[in-house]
Amino acid sequence: MQEKLRQHIEKIIPLSDEEFAFVLSHFTVKQAKKKTFLFRMGESVRYSYFVVSGLLTLIYHDDTGKQHIVSFAMEDWWESDYQAYFSQTAAGMSLQCLENTELYCLTLQDYRKLCSGLPKMEHFFLQKANAGHVGSQRRILSFLTSNAKERYEQLLQRYPALLQRVPKTLLASYLGVSRETLSRLGPSS
Amino acid sequence: MQEKLRQHIEKIIPLSDEEFAFVLSHFTVKQAKKKTFLFRMGESVRYSYFVVSGLLTLIYHDDTGKQHIVSFAMEDWWESDYQAYFSQTAAGMSLQCLENTELYCLTLQDYRKLCSGLPKMEHFFLQKANAGHVGSQRRILSFLTSNAKERYEQLLQRYPALLQRVPKTLLASYLGVSRETLSRLGPSS
């Protein structure tokens, strides 16, 4: 499990054994069962999560109780409600495990300590934040320019593994279409 | 003009005069007339832009020639096609001035030099990237959960000044609605 976090970070910055031990000392480990909520809307968001294995989904429940899937996060991804995390306000979304999931958890305080204690970790997080920003820009564009079928095909092309693991109802919500519409989009649905 | 960049950075990190001079040496200044394209789809993206005064819009032209507004950037905002900028690939979008605009321009090479030469700038950019990521997450959520009228009202509430400055056709495109639909949404349209 440690090796996965180390490999993930070392894709961007090299770490000595001492440095990695320092990094690791800022995280706590969590094993969460399928269906567990890591936080729910209205609760405090204590952690940013790194997924070692398993699958998370960020969910927004609207006033009518309908759920909207904001994102999925699988192995090697980071996830949280970042607005709530960085501003230490109540969660505007819920984060749920879709599978049994192994996580590294990082509080905002430890994130800051880690960055100031080992400045190259700031470089690492900057790369991840930029990549996240690019991914979001791409998704916004897909909402503006693509219909549901195209968005489905883009997802299939980028993350084929994800489609095998995500319940179709949630996939439909992620794409912003009804379950019935999704059924018409492809053989794998 | 220098004071605006300095104040913008000093909201996050303090800078000595020497440090600010070092920061400034990595930027070039550009004055661009209204309607100028800073880059067009297919061209290389040389810079990340900081807007000192004026207004930019990031535009995607689809295969049919229809334009989609991905974002607006006014004073104190950073803008670019970040996927193209960070990966040094051709622009997938165009960046245009909607007003006469004063800009600070930063190449990727200078961005990297600046971060390695003055590591606290990495901290600054991390804060901006995280804020950008949060803003994108909010916009994705608004596409999933809000109708055009709600998205219009959210925009009005967050950026009242923007609505006075942006042509209604572009505003409609940003919201993902037709110009006619926008006209029905509010008295200011």
Name a few traits of the molecule.
alpha+beta, four-stranded antiparallel sheet, 189 residues, Jelly Rolls, 9 helices, homodimer
* Fourth CATH level, the homologous superfamily of the domain at 2-111 in chain A: Jelly Rolls
Q: Which chains make the largest contact?
A: A-B, 35 and 35 residues
Shape of chain A: globular
User: How far apart, in Å, are the first and last alpha carbons of chain A?
Assistant: 33 Å
**pLDDT averaged residue by residue of chain A:** 90
What class would the helix/strand composition of chain A place it in? Answer: alpha+beta
Strands in their spatial order, largest beta sheet of chain A: 1-8-3-6
Low-confidence segments of chain A, given as residue ranges, are: none
Quaternary organization: homodimer
Radius of gyration of chain A: 17 Å
Care to describe what's here?
Two copies of one chain form a homodimer. The first copy, chain A, has helices at about 1-10, 15-25, 80-85, 110-115, 120-145, 150-160, 160-165, 170-175, 180-185, and strands spanning about 30, 35-40, 45-55, 55-60, 65-75, 80, 95, 100-105. By secondary structure, chain A is α+β, with helices and mostly antiparallel strands. Chain A has a domain at about 1-110: Jelly Rolls. In chain A, the strands form two sheets. Chain A has a four-stranded antiparallel beta sheet with strand order 1-8-3-6. In chain A, strands 2-7-4-5 form a four-stranded antiparallel beta sheet. In chain A, β4 and β5 (about 65-75) form a beta hairpin. In chain A, α4 crosses α5 (about 120-145). Chain A is globular, with a radius of gyration of 17 Å. Chain A starts with a helix and ends with a helix. The mean pLDDT of chain A is about 90. Chains A, B: It holds the Pfam family cNMP_binding. Chains A, B: Keywords: Kinase, Transferase. Chains A, B: This is cAMP-binding domain of CRP or a regulatory subunit of cAMP-dependent protein kinases. Chains A, B: GO terms for molecular function: kinase activity.
